[in-house]
Amino acid sequence: MPVSLCAEAGLPNQPYVYVEGKSEVERMADMVTLRFDLVARNADQSKANQEVQAKAGKILALLNDRKIAHGDVIAEDLKSEPQYEDEESSSNRRGKVIGYSVTRSFEVKVRDVATFPKLVDELLALGGVEFSAIDGGLANEKEMQDDVFAKALIDARTRAEKTLALTGMKIDSLFAVSPVRFLEIRQKVLGGHDAYGSATTERVVVPDPMQYRLAPVAVTQSVHLIFLISPAK
Questions:
Q1: Phi/psi zone of residue 126: left (φ > 0), alpha (ψ -120 to 50 degrees), beta?
Q2: For domain 31-137, is the CATH number 3.30.70.2970?
Q3: What is the pLDDT of residues 7-38, one digit of tens each?
């Protein structure tokens, strides 16, 4: 690459190697996040709200009885929407208002995985509860992300050393490190225009007619490094 182009891209103006390191750790989920809405519908908006607030109180009491910590419960949202005679039509042809729908959204972390199926049944038994997601997760996810990041760095160094050993070069120093791809190199050298993320955590829940089966949680990380290099002596 010409020196002028290197300077323009913010890249080294001396020989370098660009490598990507990867790491992944997979664990069984040890916590679950429940996401659901509590919905009430009534011709009278205030009555719909009263019903939602009364059931919300029962939900919070139930969660308290099940030893769910206050910090693991989010219930800050409230939404009220009119309902029309013909909800499927365009906004100016739906007819008159026939009632109201009042919704409160909940997000609950259950740290005892064995208890959440029963809790789901108890919530549904209250009526008006509509689940949107049951997500498996890890209580120590932050520590795992730090661990896979460190392993990705080691992987990148190892890849660089193996590559350079075949070409008679060696690493002098680290020029740059990033959890995302150096776009300057891809765009100016490879001509690509992709965007990349890092430290992603996959949460997948597989439903079953008789029981809930949480999929393993995979914490993955890629890291991009530029090493300055020189001929090996």
A1: alpha
A2: yes
A3: 445 688 899 999 999 999 999 999 999 999 99
